[in-house]
Amino acid sequence: VYDWFITTGQYLLFNLYSWIKELRNVDNLHDNSAKISQFLNVWWGNFHDIELNGIKETPSSEYPTKILLELTNNCNLDCIMCGVGRNPYDAKKNLSLDLVKSLCNDVLKKVSYLRLNGLGESTILPNFLEYLELISGLPLQLEIVTNLNVKNQLVWKKLIDANTNFLISCDSSNPRIYETIRRRASFSVFKHNLKLLSDSISHPLQAQIIFTLMKININEIQGVMEMALDFGLGGVIINVVKSEANNQKWIDNNFDLILQLFYKASSFAKKHGVKLKLPDHLGNFLIDTEISNPSSKNQCFNPWKEVYIRYNGDATVCNMLNPYIYGNLNLMSFEDLWSGANSQMFRKLANTRIKHPYCKDCYYLQ
Questions:
Q1: Which keywords describe this protein according to UniProt (predicted)?
Q2: Which domain, by its residues, includes 272?
Q3: Which region, left, alpha or beta, applies to residue 111 given φ > 0 means left and ψ of -120 to 50 means alpha?
Q4: Selection from 178, 121, 51, 58 nearest residue 311 by Cα
Q5: Pair 252, 172 in one domain
Q6: Residue 61: pLDDT band by 50, 70, 90 thresholds?
């Protein structure tokens, strides 16, 4: 019983608590005990089937297609939509090199993609090149999400040598707005590194921009599209800032303008051959399917395809940073975690009416 609680039970209870808490916040269910009871009946029914009756579904694949690694929970920037960079650097918030070695000898040999991603900037690690040396020998496609603000040119050269795909965080082509959003960033350093990548990539889609849409940068979409074209980057992905359900007024008040800018960006992309990915909704508003990409809001495949491993070994659902935890890789094997009770509980509810509240307005683009 003790071993079960350490590897599975503690996360099961945490997930149940946080699920109900989020459900109340999102749907204003403080007094709706009937709906909470309905959720609990389904949850515990699934738990009873999986843990007590041994009715376990085999995942569609023995391993995911993609692993996302958060090498660090430290960041060099203090972006207004995040906050991780407000905290001082803490070496305890770096993923253990020993755990990465273990993953390289096991599950990372069996997946197709590895993305360095998370609540932190991978390239600021003092020994980042040690991690990269381990990873670059694997038979997979390496990807990195980066703010491109590290001055160490050797880091970028080694990533290019490893045939890395770059997803570059940039929310404006205007230096003032860029540095207002990404506090402590240098637009000149960013552009210098962007030029280095654009001169070195083997094809345009090896480097794409991730633009996080928020109130302050609504009018910056076109400028970023033009910058991508100028630097020979293959694509722009429009993400939407994650905010509370009651903090969507900026979308409501600006939807017509945003939609107009989406159409303009779409026309520009088609004319110049830039791959543009727009969300299929903004809050409660739907976006024309002629210009948008399907999101995971209504149907999600990620729980069957990927796992996001945090700096402390916690394995979570996806690259949208859902807080649900499958388990911890310091306590159990990846195989047990991937097919365990917590992962199965999430998958059973993933595309149902009582899916995790965090997923309600998901902007992950397929």
A1: 4Fe-4S, Iron, Iron-sulfur, Metal-binding, S-adenosyl-L-methionine
A2: 153-293
A3: beta
A4: 121
A5: yes
A6: confident
- The 3-state DSSP class for residue 280 equals coil
| DSSP codes joined into one string, 77-132 | -EETTT-GGGSPP-GGGB--HHHHHHHHTTGGGS-SEEEE-SSS-GGG-TTHHHHH
The verdict on 190 and 322 lying in the same domain is no
CATH of the domain at 142: 3.20.20
Residue 20, CB-side half-sphere exposure with 13 Å CA sphere = 19
> Do 348 and 46 meet the contact criterion of CB atoms below 8 Å apart?
yes
**What is the predicted pLDDT for the residue at 23?**
78
pLDDT tens track for 100-109? 999 999 999 9
Other C-beta atoms within 10 Å of 161: how many? Answer: 11
Domain count for the chain: 2
User: Per-residue pLDDT tens for 99-155?
Assistant: 999 999 999 999 999 999 999 999 999 999 999 999 999 999 999 999 999 999 999
Q: How far apart are CA 184 and CA 84, in angstroms?
A: 13
Q: What pLDDT does residue 360 have?
A: 84
pLDDT per residue as tens digits for the range 254-273: 999 999 999 999 999 999 99
- What residues contact residue 70 under an 8 Å CB cut-off, 6+ apart? 95, 117, 118, 119, 120, 308, 309, 310, 311
Q: Which residue has the tokens 């993400």?
A: 239
CATH of the domain at 182: 3.30.750
Two tokens, residue 203: 């094809």
Decide: 265 and 271 in contact? Cβ < 8 Å: no
Lowest mean pLDDT among 26-30, 298-302, 327-331: 26-30
